[in-house]
Structures are given as structure tokens and as C-alpha cells.
Amino acid sequence: MISLDVKGCKVDILPIVNGLISEADRVRQEFTPHEAYAAALSIEGIQCLKNRKNIDEMFDVSELDMIYAAHMERFGEVEIPSPAMYTFIDLVTEQGQLCLPLDMNDADFTDLYCDTVGALEFVKEHRIAKKGMKRIFDGSTPEKLAKQWDDFVNSSMKSYGVLSRKREEHIAAEIVDITRFKKELLVIIEVERVDGVVDILKGLQ
Fold first, then answer.
1. CB count in 10 Å sphere of residue 150
2. Per-residue pLDDT for 72 more than 70?
3. What is the pTM assigned to this prediction?
């Protein structure tokens, strides 16, 4: 858990590794009552996870996500959608609270993606996925592996690195907005984006 004071609000950030089922237990262990809760997901993503038992369709999984999952399986069973994320949302719901979205809504992200990722890089994704499958990642922990995979994808496809930075900026801005109304906030963010978000928030102090 990372704790920061952001404009008079105590912000606790819980970094998680997406996919690993074991991360759900860690979320349950570290979850504590707060005035407000937020996740690095879109509003649509939160609603989808909250109502996942009533949704018949399969969750969309990209080729890069499948390769990531294959590498992450050396640390335990992997599941999509993220067990850590849906467990957090379930716990917030049990508190009688709403989980606030920190990420862009689907329409805004789609617009950003189309403006940022060119056709050539979009086509390149399959080749990067194949290269990633063969690559050896030596991360000794799930957190290190997640960051290594993120670095590999973002360095191989520069526009994806731009998307990641834009997400970090948006997530940090949403956290700051919440602190205008709340004095205590628990946030869950995938470990790959935590450092960037924390750096932005610290820069405001």
C-alpha cells in the first residue's frame, strides 16, 4: 500500500497485478474502510465487473493480453477479467458504496486510441505478440514481470507508451478531483501504472 497526502486527502493506493487469482486474496487482506473508493477502470468497466454474473458474453481479450497471461501463469492461475479488480468492486459494494472510475470512459479512450495509434502500429500488434511469446522475461515476482511486459509492449509500440502516459495523467487528475470532496480515499491501480500516477501526484505537493 502506498499512502499519500493529496491536497489534504489521505490517498491509499493499492497496486495490483491483473490476472492472478491469488491477487484477490491480497485485496481482501488489505481492503479497509475508507470514505471513498476508486479503481483505474472506466465507468463501463466497473459496471461490467459489478454485473459480471449476469453477462453472458465473453470478455474481450486481445492477443497481447493472452501472451501476458501465458507468461504470468508461472506465478499461479490466471483469470480474465482481473480477479483483483472485481474483488475490490465487490468489497466496495458490500460497504454500501460506489466504486468511482478513474479511467477514461470507453468513448473517450476509443477516440484517443484512434488519434494515437496509427494503422501501421495497429497491424504491428500481431508481430509484437508473437515476439513477446518467444521472449524470456526474468522477473522474479509477478509485479516485476508485469512491469517488464509493460515496458516491452510500450517500447515496441511507441504509441502504446503514449497511451499509457495519457492514462496515468487522467487517473491522477481524477484522484485530485475526488480529493476536493473527500478526506480519505482507497484506490486500486494496476502495478504498471502506479509509479507514473504517484510521480504526478507527488509533483502536486
1. 18
2. yes
3. 0.91
